[in-house]
Design goal:
4-stranded mixed β-sheet, globular, 3 helices, about 100 residues, single chain, 4 strands
Length: about 100
């Protein structure tokens, strides 16, 4: 679990990122979760945007993505979800204690 301080740190890091994935009418599926897990391994911190035509609410989508990709949910703001997962091979972000 991330501490409040670590979440603040990650939010500041994520601020300048653009969303890489979009969740639309089809909602969340296995393929999307696999792709997100792969990108998290490479980048550690990503944003996902939820489109207007998505049938599920943003908290449900955030929960499905973070559980599916085994990632930490850093933030849900507006229609954007910020996810973090420590990379095994490609560690770039050093979290504050």
């Amino acid at each position: 679990m991330l501490t409040g301080k670590q979440k603040r740190f990650l939010r500041s890091k994520a601020h300048h990122l653009s969303p890489i994935f979009q969740v639309g009418k089809g909602g969340v599926n296995e393929n999307m979760i696999k792709q997100i897990a792969d990108v998290l391994e490479a980048r550690e911190l990503i944003k996902v945007s939820i489109l207007q035509n998505c049938d599920e609410d943003r908290d449900t989508v955030a929960d499905q993505l973070s559980r599916g990709a085994k990632a930490e949910l850093v933030q849900v703001i507006g229609n954007t979800i910020v996810l973090y997962k420590e990379s095994r091979e490609n560690k770039q972000i050093v979290l504050p204690r």
